[in-house]
Design goal:
The chain has 301 residues and is mainly α. The chain is 74% helix and 2% strand. A hairpin with a 2-residue loop joins strand 1 and strand 2. The chain is globular.
Length: 301
C-alpha cells in the first residue's frame, strides 16, 4: 500500500469515523438503526453552506482564506451555527416521530421503518430547497502540500486533526464524567438506570444532540474534501454503519477506528480496481464482520 493511498484513506476514514461515532451513540442508547442519520450529515453541510454564504454577504472580509486553507472565518463560525441547527433538527424529528413511537412501545422494526421514511422526507426536502446541483464552500483551487512523495491539501490535514481531537474528547467524556456514566448506564439497562434516578429522557436528548453534531461535522468535512450534494448522506450511509458495527456498537474510539479501516479499504480498492468498486467495499466488510465477529472489534458479545 503506497503512502498516498494511506493518506487518502485516512482522510476519508476520518470523515466516515465521525459520522459512524454518531451512529454508534444513537444506536446504543435508542436501540434501533437510524437510517435518517445520513441525512443529518447532508443537512449539516447545507446549514453550514447557507450560514457561511449569509455571513459572507454581510461581511465579505470573512470569506478571505485563512492562511493555507481554502475557507475564511465565515465557515468555522457557520459550522458552529450548523451544529446547533442540525441538533435542533434531530430533536424536532425525535419529538414528531421517534418520541411518539417510543411512548407507544413500538417494535424495533417500526422504528427502523420510520427512520427510512424520515430519511426520504429529509432528503427530498433538502433537494427541493437547494436543488440537486453540487455545491462547494470555496470556489478556488487549493494547492496540495507535498511531503515524502505524498500530496495532501491543508483542508484534508485539518480535517484529520479535528476528527482525532473530537473523538478523543468524546471518549474522555463518556469514560470519565458523570454524564458519560449515565449514558453507559442507560445503554446497558434503561430500567435499572431509571430506578437509580437517571433521567433517560435527558440522556436521549443529549445523544440526539451529540449524534447530530458529529453528523454535521462529518458533512462539513465532506464538503471541504469533496463536494456537497443532497444525496451525500445516502452515499455515506453504508460506510457509516459498516464502520460502527466494525468498531463495536457503543464504542466511540471503535467507530473511529472502523471508519479509518473502511476509508483505507476504499482507497486501496480505488487504487487497485477503480472507483466504480468503492461502494462495494463497505458492504463486503459489513457482511464479513457480521459473519465473523458480530459484536465488532471493541463491542461485547
Amino acid at each position: 500500500m503506497s503512502p498516498q493511498v494511506i493518506v487518502d484513506g485516512l482522510v476519508a476514514g476520518a470523515m466516515i469515523g465521525l459520522g459512524a461515532t454518531g451512529v454508534t451513540l444513537t444506536y446504543s442508547i435508542l436501540r434501533f438503526a437510524n437510517f435518517a442519520h445520513g441525512e443529518f450529515i447532508a443537512w449539516g453541510a447545507y446549514f453550514a453552506l447557507a450560514v457561511s454564504g449569509f455571513l459572507g454577504a454581510l461581511a465579505p472580509a470573512l470569506t478571505a482564506p485563512i492562511g493555507p486553507f481554502s475557507f475564511g472565518w465565515s465557515l468555522p463560525i457557520a459550522a458552529l451555527a450548523a451544529i446547533a441547527l442540525t441538533a435542533a433538527l434531530a430533536l424536532l424529528v425525535d419529538a414528531l416521530l421517534f418520541g411518539s413511537l417510543r411512548a407507544k412501545n413500538s417494535a424495533i422494526i417500526i422504528m427502523v421503518m420510520a427512520s427510512f421514511g424520515a430519511a426520504l422526507t429529509l432528503r427530498n426536502l433538502l433537494e427541493f430547497i437547494f436543488t440537486s446541483s453540487p455545491a462547494y464552500y470555496a470556489e478556488g483551487l487549493q494547492m496540495a502540500l507535498r511531503f515524502a512523495g505524498v500530496r495532501a491539501t491543508p483542508d484534508a490535514l485539518l480535517c484529520l486533526v479535528i476528527a482525532a481531537i473530537i473523538v478523543i474528547a468524546l471518549h474522555a467524556v463518556i469514560a470519565h464524567t458523570a454524564i458519560g456514566r449515565a449514558m453507559r448506564a442507560v445503554s446497558e439497562n434503561p430500567q435499572l438506570a431509571a430506578i437509580v434516578g437517571i433521567d433517560s429522557r435527558k440522556i436521549v436528548r443529549l445523544v440526539w444532540i451529540l449524534g447530530a453534531g458529529l453528523a454535521c461535522l462529518a458533512g462539513v468535512m465532506a464538503g471541504l474534501i469533496v463536494q456537497i450534494r443532497p444525496t451525500m448522506g445516502l452515499d455515506l450511509l453504508l460506510p457509516l454503519f459498516a464502520a460502527a458495527i466494525l468498531g463495536g456498537i457503543g464504542s466511540a474510539m471503535g467507530a473511529m477506528l472502523g471508519g479509518l479501516i473502511i476509508g483505507l479499504a476504499e482507497s486501496l480498492t480505488v487504487a487497485l480496481a477503480g472507483g466504480e468498486w468503492r461502494a462495494a467495499v463497505a458492504f463486503v466488510i459489513l457482511v464479513a464482520i457480521l459473519l465473523l465477529r458480530p459484536h465488532g472489534l471493541f463491542g461485547r458479545s
